[in-house]
Design a protein that fits this description.
By secondary structure, the chain is of the alpha+beta class. The chain has 1 helix and 2 strands. A two-stranded antiparallel sheet has the order 1-2. β1 (12-22) and β2 (25-36) form a beta hairpin. It is elongated. It comes from Streptomyces luomodiensis.
């Protein structure tokens, strides 16, 4: 639980690429980009109405 609390307090970014190739010819490329962070209710939204949309 301490590790999860520490990760959520600071945030973490995960990136990765996966390429599937046959005979050194790339056939499929998958890219992963993920951001994990916590939300603090005490920080006010930068907009004044109900939301950005």
């Amino acid at each position: 639980m301490d590790l999860l609390d520490r990760v959520l307090a600071t945030g973490v970014v995960i990136t990765g690429d996966l390429v599937i190739a046959i005979a050194e010819v790339p056939l499929v490329r998958l890219s992963l980009h993920a951001l994990l962070s916590s939300v603090n209710e005490r920080v006010q939204a930068p907009w004044t109405d109900s939301g950005p949309l």
